[in-house]
UniProtKB/TrEMBL annotation:
Main subcellular localisation: cytoplasm
Lineage top rank: taxon: Eukaryota
Gene Ontology biological process terms from the UniProt entry: intracellular protein transport; vesicle-mediated transport
Higher taxonomy: Eukaryota, Metazoa, Chordata, Craniata, Vertebrata
Name the UniProt record assigns to this protein: AP-1 complex subunit gamma
Subcellular location: Cytoplasm, Perinuclear region; Cytoplasmic vesicle, Clathrin-coated vesicle membrane; Golgi apparatus; Membrane, Coated pit
Length: 822
């Protein structure tokens, strides 16, 4: 058989292919020749054939048939064969294939080989694709090589030890003695890998973290030598000595100094030196400064050092590199709540980033700008954000409008300014605002009694001839219907009144009704407004009757129903019309966030006190009622109880029985699915009955400590407790869900169940989105009736979407404080 072509010739041949089909034909022909050679056990050219196979694997073609040949090369005594064999094993094998276990013995022999390069190959392979079984078998050899005096082997052994610890964390203590002298090494390669190993051990074990905190002075000394050392051609990168090692040490210091006063104090000086002495003209220096800033912000550093770190981020915002500007904005967004005043100094630079061409920078700048708004700068910041809203891309308008609404509601200097700002948003981006903007603005206008004439006049002028912004038209129609008499009378004192007749007002509303741009909802607003004007106007009642009767035959069912009912008011119930259509009273805003809210002051010295009112005493529907039957999987399970008495069967349709599987808090056997015939359950009045005459909750200062019920994957659930005044057996639990990751958690649903001796009621959550970076929380109220004063136990289920994936998790909460149930 002729000798196979060399790898270089194969590469040259494949590159001459003009089409994908031609390349595929060449590859298939060569693969066939390689298979034939493998079948004939051709030891002479096995190394060459596997090398060609690896090249074809890198091009994306299947090469799995070469796995056993890699093992044969590893078992060879020739270094060239071993090199290709180990490379092939790292590329073609992984721990999901059992064939990788066949090379365990070969790796063990090579780890004890007399040649350091063969030992290095074995260490690289084990550190790349070693399974947990291989790591357990070979950890002893790795630990021996970690103690050797050969720096070439020590750096590879340290990286291999990192892989072993990741696969088998319980082997961590085996490497502890070997780490004692690693930081005394002069070789930068060994130092670098040693820091990586120490970082991995500290991140995985609190005990190791406490043990290695005593190394902080030594790490500080190494870092100081790096920044003070002269030029070293071996380690110099753009004029900076070994930036890779500096970055690794800064990351390790960040872990060691977190939540530890002594360690943080020991590294304050060196962090200040790095921050002031590092050259910023090159990207290498910016990388070190960024890691320094993260370390300063994460440890218990001095206030002056934190200001220095924020000033560095402020300089990053002026950099021409988009990536540097982006990481600066992201870092400032994380620190704005803790160091608000320091970030405020860079407000003008942050606002300038709103004009950046890069959309990711623009979004981060918008989020940070909203975080900087407070009562002192509300006018200036709103001016910039409204300008941004006017010129930004459509994908920003919804978030920007919502942010402006929230900021204006929280910090508005006057009612007129508040109304003007929201009207400007509706005029600029009305089609993009969220659904709750219209009722919120209507409520604001209703409660601003002295501004009614001014507001209706502004809205009337805003929609003259332009019905494109539907939310604006809806608010205008509602206000004209409510306050049309003020519009016609010209009583506006805030600005020059306009002269409008009753017919002109009706012309506008009729134009809204017949406009092609008007949605069904908008037409409903307009028709109701026309009907209301029948009690405000005196000269046009017959015209209003005619308009209403026309729409009694509309093809829009909603509009038709309204018109028919309004016609009936004119005919059968005309004596009740003026009472039914009288002006709306001042509305009270109902908060669904539980009995207490957290006020963020954004740097103001005196936050406004928040009044908390007891929720209404009427029954509140809950969508979770009876949805968690058999959630705990035992015989003593109670469903979620609705607020009103119900005669609904205990079964919620069968599909939710045993929702979480055979989970049992009491140790009883799991309940079998309920039979088709279930006796009716008549629940007694529950929780909200008889609460209208007294405050619902005791003061928060009852001494019941809060608990963390769940903390995993960046999601944290905290429980706070209160007791009902009217019924001591009722415990009111307010959950707060926060998200420390970099992306929002959407479609968040919290479900809970308790044993049968308790009764549970879930009220509606404040939102379904948990904002990223802990910038907000979801709150939800749980009410538990515990008549027998038994220890409280609960099983919770969490579902949400994060990073494009649907997440679901279960947890058991048994650490309720005794004050919450005794």
């Amino acid at each position: 058989m002729p000798a196979p072509i060399r790898l270089r010739e194969l590469i040259r041949t494949i590159r001459t292919a003009r089409t994908q089909a031609e390349e595929r034909e060449m590859i298939q022909k060569e693969c066939a020749a390689i298979r034939s050679s493998f079948r004939e056990e051709d030891n002479t050219y096995r190394c060459r054939n596997v090398a060609k196979l690896l090249y074809m694997h890198m091009l994306g073609y299947p090469a799995h048939f070469g796995q056993l040949e890699c093992l044969k090369l590893i078992a060879s005594q020739k270094f060239t064969d071993k090199r290709i064999g180990y490379l092939g094993a790292m590329l073609l094998l992984d721990e999901r294939q059992d064939v990788h276990l066949l090379m365990t013995n070969c790796i063990k022999n090579d780890l004890n080989h007399s040649t350091q390069y063969v030992q290095g190959l074995a260490l690289c392979t084990l550190g790349c694709m070693g399974s947990s079984e291989m790591c357990r078998d070979l950890a002893g050899e790795v630990e021996k090589l970690l103690k050797t005096s050969n720096s070439y082997l020590r750096k590879k052994a340290a990286l291999c030890a990192v892989h072993v610890i990741r696969k088998v964390p319980e082997l961590m203590e085996m490497f502890l003695p070997a780490t004692k002298n690693l930081l005394n090494e002069k070789n930068h390669g060994v130092l670098h890998t040693s820091v990586v190993l120490l970082t991995e051990m500290c991140e995985r074990s609190p005990d190791m973290l406490a043990h290695f905190r005593k190394l902080v002075p030594q790490l500080v000394r190494i870092l100081k030598n790096l920044i003070m050392s002269g030029y070293s051609p071996e380690h110099d990168v753009s004029g900076i000595s070994d930036p890779f090692l500096q970055v690794r040490i800064l990351r390790l210091l960040r872990i060691l100094g977190r939540n530890d006063d002594d360690s943080s104090e020991a590294m304050n000086d060196i962090l200040a030196q790095v921050a002031t002495n590092t050259e910023t003209s090159k990207n290498v220096g910016n990388a070190i400064l960024y890691e320094t800033v993260l370390t300063i912000m994460d440890i218990k550093s001095e206030s002056g050092l934190r200001v220095l770190a924020i000033n560095i981020l402020g300089r990053f915002l002026l950099n021409n590199d988009k990536n540097i500007r982006y990481v600066a904005l992201t870092s400032l967004l994380k620190t704005v709540q803790t160091d608000h005043n320091a970030v405020q100094r860079h407000r003008s630079t942050i606002v300038d980033c709103l004009k950046d061409l890069d959309v990711s920078i623009k979004r981060r700048a918008m989020e940070l700008s909203f975080a900087l708004v407070n009562g002192n700068n509300i006018r200036g910041m709103m001016k910039e954000l409204l300008y941004f809203l006017d010129s930004c891309e459509p994908e920003f308008k919804a978030d920007c409008a919502s942010g402006i609404f929230l900021a204006a509601e929280k910090y508005a200097p006057s009612k007129r300014w508040h109304i003007d700002t929201i009207m400007r948003v509706l005029t600029t981006a009305g089609s993009y605002v969220r659904d709750d903007a219209v009722p919120n603005l209507i409520q604001l206008i209703t409660n601003s009694v002295e501004m009614h004439a001014y507001t209706v006049q502004r809205l009337y002028k805003a929609i003259l001839g332009d019905y494109s912004q539907q939310p604006l038209v809806q608010v205008a129609a509602w206000c004209i219907g409510e306050y049309g008499d003020l519009l016609v009378s010209g009583q506006c004192e805030e600005e020059e009144p306009i002269q409008v007749t009753e017919d002109e007002v009706l012309d506008i509303l009729e134009s809204v009704l017949i406009s092609n741009m008007s949605t069904s909802v908008t037409r409903g607003y307009a028709l109701t407004a026309i009907m209301k004007l029948s009690t405000r106007f005196t000269c046009t009642v017959n015209r209003i009757k005619k308009v209403v009767s026309i729409y009694g035959s509309s093809i829009d069912v909603e509009l038709q129903q309204r018109a028919v009912e309004y016609n009936a008011l004119f005919k059968k119930y005309d004596h009740m019309r003026s009472a039914l259509l009288e002006r709306m009273p001042v509305m009270e805003k109902v908060t669904t966030n539980g009995p207490t809210e957290i006020v963020q002051t954004n740097g103001e010295t005196e936050p406004a006190p928040l009044e908390t009112k007891p929720p209404p005493s009427g029954p509140q529907p809950t969508s979770q009622a009876n949805d968690l039957l058999d959630l705990l999987g035992g015989n003593d399970i109670t469903p979620v109880i609705p607020t009103a008495p119900t005669s609904k069967p205990a079964s919620a349709g069968g599909e939710l029985l045993d929702l979480l599987g055979d989970i049992n808090l009491t140790g009883a056997p799991a309940a079998s699915p309920a039979p088709a015939s279930v006796p009716q359950i008549s629940q007694p009045p529950f929780l909200l009955d008889g609460l209208s005459s007294q405050p619902l909750f005791n003061d928060i200062a009852t001494g019941i400590p809060s608990i963390t019920a769940y903390s995993k994957n960046g999601l944290k659930i905290e429980f706070t407790f209160e007791r009902s005044n009217t019924n001591p057996s009722v415990t009111v639990i307010t959950i707060q869900a926060s998200n420390s990751t970099e992306l929002d958690m959407t479609d968040f649903v919290f479900q809970a169940a308790v044993p049968k001796t308790f009764q549970l009621q879930l009220l509606s959550p404040s939102s379904s989105i948990v904002p990223a970076f802990n910038t907000g929380t979801i709150t939800q109220v749980i009410k538990v009736l515990n008549p027998q004063k038994q220890q409280l136990r609960m099983r919770i289920k969490l579902t949400y979407n994060h990073k494009g994936s649907a997440m679901q998790d279960l947890a058991e909460v048994n650490n309720f404080p005794p004050q919450s149930w005794q």
